[in-house]
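Ticket #4471: complex job returned nothing on first submit. Input attached below:
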Amino acid sequence: MSQFSAYAAPGQSRALIIRNLVKEYRKGVPVLRDISLTISEPGIVAIIGPSGTGKSTLIRCINRLVDPTSGSIMLGGTDLAKLQGEALRIARRRLGMVFQEYNLVERLTVIENVLCGRLGYVPAWRAWTRRFPEADIARAFALLDSVGLEELATRRADELSGGQRQRVGIARAVMQEPDLILADEPTSSLDPKTSVEIMELLAKVGRQRDIPVLVNIHNVALARRYATRMIGMSKGVVIYDGPPSGLQDSHLAEIYGGEGWME
Amino acid sequence: MSPVVISPAAGLRARAFPPNWSLRIGAALFVLYVIYAAGIVDIRWERFVQGLGNGTRFLGRMFPPNLAPDKLQLLWQGMIESLQIAIIATGAGILLALPIGLCAARNLMPWPVTVLSRGFIALLRTFHPVIVAILFVKAVGFGALAGILALIVATIGFIAKLIAEAIEEMSMRPIEALRAAGSPFPSVVVMGVVPQVLPRFIGFAAYQLDSNLRNSALVGLVGGGGIGATLFTAFQRFDYDFVLTIILAIILAVMAGEILSAFMRRVYQDEAPSGKVKRGSSGPVWHRFTASERSLRLAFWALAAVALGWSFQTIEIIPEFLYDAPAQTVDLFARMWPIDWAYFPKTVQLALIETLHTATLGTILAIGMATPVALMCARNVTPSALINTIGRFILVATRSVHTLVWALFFVAVFGPGALAGVMAVAVHSIGFTGKFLAEAIEEAKAGPIEALRAAGAPPRAILLKGFWPQVKPAFLAVSLFRWDINVRESAVLGLVGAGGLGVALQAAMDNLYWDQVGLVLVVIFAVVVVTEIVTATLRAKVI
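Support reply: We reran it on our side without changes. The output follows.
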């Protein structure tokens, strides 16, 4: 229970403030058009919208897997959009990320994959010889326990099912002690039942660590069920931003286009 | 198609089996080429028959192998030195190859770094180890050091290229995840790259160890120390019974090397850690490996360290030569420049043509001889374990003896010239070509074969219609790859009198005309580059 909150960050402002974010992969063809958002509330913030609308690009701009063309991304007083090299690396330690395809190191064990979340903090020689600090190892096991995988700690990641892998992916992100978790379509490769369990887990992590969890998701019903806030995007702009209860069919029609699919 | 279509079925039949004119013309041109090239390298029936007579006499003088104590003493010294050369070259070469290979990986490094590293690797790979050894012998003097340096160059060229390829083929997803978690670059390499690349790396490091063992016999032929020097002396003194002893010893050593590398692969390759979690007093205790796995690994590293230490301790290196080396090298290249273009039309052009024909004919002959051996080895074609084993022995034996050693043998049989070169290239290539062909045949799907067998097809038809269509791509790929290698090998065969560019190289070196040596090296460089482009284009087209 206390595992997620044990390392909660000190009470500074952890709001993520995005201002006028623009991303063009090709010049003159913006994927993100002037996005401005402020995210400070803990729990799941779900981003919905059709494929190719820039949801992934938005998430990846935040931790700079994609470099924004212009705009600012403020977190805890620093502009992530301007960081380079070592400063960027230090900033990324506080941004956990969960991927659609889990992105585990297949040939490493589950516990090694979870400990990968500490790579930003420990020197490379410790990683190489697997001499992680004892506190890290203890916490990794506790985290595995809390996602229900303790029995599988020494199994190789490629032996796991999709749902199990995504739990490892979430444990790895939490291992970073993040101020914010980014999840890029974490349920898109999973069956409906497992998808629910993963969303449940992400919501629990957000609650217990008291941090925002920014989730890209295609399944609107699932998003409504777990999100405290929903952001609807279409063609690179925000169409709806508010509580799930306020999201009307008219919004959905505007986000996804047409109405026939809703029947 | 014919203007009058009698029935749709006839039209279909005509379209199902059209005469393949490009294939027929290709086959005719191929036969014409073989006749023409055979004329150029002076392959005639009477020479061949005469050679067979020589060969019989030669083999008679080889048997029984000389096992006199003084000879065995020489053999032992030579083998030990070769082993030391191989160990040092493999150890040092791999250590140097790791960072270079990493720098050449285009998915991890910025492009200026990869371009530089790739250029460097290509340069190292251009020249045959024998030519590199010749240059090092001039720079640091006769002996083991020149051999070690030459094999280090070869090792870096091979390993760094494969590491770069392995890294470029790995999945980038985990790398992205580790970067997103703020991992510094060394940690990304250690936790993201190494686990993905390690199994393949172990595979080719093990291969390189036994390849260096084979090649250490080679560099000795040109003064690089080790068993090669012993072998060359024995040849020059017509001690043919001792030659056989040495060759048998080399084959045995290479086989031992292959067993060792297979063991190494088993210990390391599939690194499925079976470490357990124990409940310690202060929480769970985790080890990556079990105690016995850890001690096996420790023993392996200890063995490697001891082998390296022993090799460095006992190998004979004259330090004065080493201090002198940079100056000598600069002097060597200064004498090569400007290169003597006048040498080209007189000698080098003919030698170049001879080299290309030697490589091509040798490859064709090798394929002809390797195909039946491959069929003998393939368990799904030949069910007899005895015949399988005989086939495998032929493959290992032909491959263990290097082309240049075969060339020495065939020069003694057929006399100096390109015929000996063609035979040497052909016989040595049997092992490589046959091994890959046998593997391709064994990988053929059993379904179509069973279907043909069930329909009562005779064995010949099963080979032609069941196996051949499945094996064809691999067959073409292996032939092309081998031709590429053989062009490089043919360029140095002349050093032992088997024709081609090597003859021109040897003549220029004997006369100390370094500007002519420079010219031959430039020509070899150009040929290798052109061959590489030709094979890459053909590969893309054919396969």
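The CA atoms of residues 4 and 199 of chain A lie 16 Å apart. Closing as resolved unless it happens again.
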